[in-house]
């Protein structure tokens, strides 16, 4: 039997959404004594990670853009994962870091990341954050006039030039306006640029946008609408200038992306009463039909996208814009391309592991499997995480085959780790381990909460040598707010 196939023998979705696994994940899941030993040593829930895929994705992305002979600086989106190991890796590989808070900036500077390779795009920037960025030589991306006024105050009396960028909105694509609550409208930019040109302390070094979603076409349109502004701002100036196109590089997390369409079709059948439910209480997970009868989208972490990673970036750069490609226009304008990948660099870097604590039935006779973690510890801004977890058996009894729902630790009726129904063909028992795959990109940290005063999950990194010991990440070292084994 294929060893990867056997990993899914103990748990799968009633309608499967099988995750794509890195080799290091397979090796660990296929070695139950080692996985259980890590849980005993570091506690549970536990975020287990590897930095090797991160380094590989950086190399692939930089290599892709290098094919277009473009100056390029990817800025790792630190908000996607709080671990210092990724900061250190980004530092050592010479890329930049996108920060979104005082703590993120402070930690990056403390790890020796040069200020000129850090950009601060925090949604709210107070005086303390501004002052820290100024002192550390960090580029500040301004979102609104109030931020600009505050930075002008902070810069008074200083003796250093402050690097700033401007965040933009007001783009259109295919005749449709692209909505964003962030940034200056395109019509505001000339006035803001004139104000910066009068400043002694502030220097405009680039323009930035970050669009919601993953559309390559919208990025192409935004770049095309931004480049004329770059020419107007720079004139014949030869100094460095960047265009940062933000994040949103799409990913595929399924071993077979076709399973997503199968799962949607089965959900629609369940909602229509044509089959047994595959979600708790036959929940539609946001898939409501619109006025035209077309089904809506599921409010789920996006796990099955076809144009991903470097192929997505390549489509943008080779897209035509007038008589030239986007890449050629950027190159002719002597602009450094920047982007802010988070999930795409962290693909395959982590998984979250927790213990099964109990088994029971609810008031309508559905099986409930209680897991010792809460839903914020494997969740982003979406209401559902659409990858099947895996189960690694412990030493206790498991009983008969069962299908049911995974409940978390919060004392609410809504506390479900997933609303999709899971099947356990060989039963499930107390002490078994539930493994949630590919959680490093946002899922393990973006919403994690200490409600009920539960401790946060620790973060460990495995070394390339399977016989080497795991290493606790620096973000957890010296702290006391952690579980025991």
Automatic annotation (TrEMBL):
The keyword Glycoprotein does not apply. Residues 275-291 have a biased composition (Basic and acidic residues). Its cofactor is pyridoxal 5'-phosphate. Residues 275-299 are annotated as: Disordered. Keywords: Pyridoxal phosphate. The keyword Cytoplasm does not apply. This is Diaminopimelate decarboxylase-like protein. It comes from Phaeobacter piscinae.
